[in-house]
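User: I'm putting together a small comparison set for a docking exercise, and I want a reference complex before I start. The sequence is below, and the ligand is pyridoxal-5'-phosphate. Could you produce the 3D structure with the ligand included, as structure tokens?
Assistant: Of course. I'll restate your input first, then give the structure tokens for the complex.
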Amino acid sequence: MEIKYFAFLKHLIRFNRQVYFDHNATTPISSHVQGKMNQVLKNHYGNPSSFYGSGRKSAELVEQARKHISQAIHADPSEVIFTACATESNNAVLKSVAAHFYPTRKKIVSTPIEHPSVLNTLAYLETQGVIVEYCPVDNKGRVRLAELEKLIDEDTFLVCCILANNETGVIQDIKAVTNIAKKHGALVLTDCVQALGKIPIDLHAWDVDYASFSAHKLYGPKGIGALYIKQNSPFTPLLHGGHQESGLRAGTESIHNIVGFGAACEDVDKLLAHGRSVQKLKRKLIQRLKEIKPDCVINSPETDCLPNTLSITFPGVENAGLMGMLDFRGIAVSAGSACSTGEDTPSHVLKAIGVSDQAARETIRISLGRDTSAGDIQYMTQVVRDYIEGRVSFVNMLTPAQLNENILFDKKTFILDVRPGDDRKQFKGLPNSHQVNPLRVEHYLKQIPRDNNILVYCPGGGLSVMISYYLKAKGYKRVTNLRGGLDGWRKRRSDLYEKYAGQNVTILEPDITN
Ligand code: PLP
């Protein structure tokens, strides 16, 4: 099934080139890391808690990795524990430190541009009585230190400030944050996930108390994080069980992942040195994009910014359509808004720096990596140029809120359901829709009327946008994609879903002579 699926996608993507510009989401695993992990998977299955030879060997591998990580962040190995991910690291610190201080001290001061793993944990802590205050940032996302100073008081037990932001790349002056926090006896947590491997990190010099890390952002494996806990800082484990990680994080160690994380950290100096050429490519990219769209707005700061990260707004160009086209041409970028609810919820980070909701819908994030080449920049900017200058045909976008009875029952609209079978089993489809096998769309073309408006939908709006572009390429004039898919529509228009879903659905048969 999977092979068929990829073959189909390959067939859809006429320009079979794959370019990855989303390194802040995750990175490909490096061959050095992969080699080390394979060795562990093959040869070292001993449990590090066992006293016999193979157990001792595994324990040694874990300690070597811990050493590599602590060297990369300027910490002592005894101050680093392994977790499953940075989300866990952030949760563990926030919940543990709150439990330690509350109710003697009640307040955490943070920023509005933290990662959801911090923001949602803070929201949870608020339900438990903790007071959370957010320090404003300027229009480039830099924490206003004077405001921070005013917000921190004797009731504040923790200041939580992200080192480098995942969306815009803005870097904070953590040493200055720590200095202010310490004056009032508050501890400091900094999320260093995006920074490791991109800018130098010196936790001892900055005097922070806690810091979180994740391997998959620096060419390491997914499912492994780390947490720095400064010596003698309060910490209660999130997970109770065995005595692993000095009793601070129970659970048998994921040795291959830990070794992979250590190997990724061995490459940190090389990555930092390479940052200069990544930055050059980013400058080139900005220059080209400005030539294509002189009114584009760069949301990432010019200085104090990750070398690889660019948040850019193209006024008048909806990001969903642009991303669909980029994806169609094999280029991965991410949006300045989250489509999880089916509507473009403007990103909290862009909002915090004063970007309007509309501009957020016209914003994409491009994050370069160590293998990004000048050719990749050339290719992507050409695709952007073709799109912006109207040399490619557009797919219309419909939000879930816009999908009403007029469209659902419009005789001139042909509703094409390209959901996979498991979603169809779980949820009824749009009324008057026509189900096709999404892997074999080419076998239904004779049955999809060319003179109608075609409304394409899938569960989340991703596959359907690609199929929409495919139909465009096949000469269909009016193709519309349901942004956010059935999922978004069910949430947004549950009234219509309850009333009409599943009515008058037609299952089309593939035309195999085609
Ligand atoms: N913090 C930041 C800044 C991130 O970018 C991410 C991942 O996107 C996380 C935390 C969460 O990391 P993980 O995927 O390891 O849970």
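Residues 85-87, 115, 117, 162, 166, 191, 193-194, 214, 225 surround pyridoxal-5'-phosphate (CB under 6 Å). Residues 31-266 form a domain with the Aspartate Aminotransferase; domain 2 fold (CATH 3.40.640.10).
User: Thanks, that's exactly what I needed.
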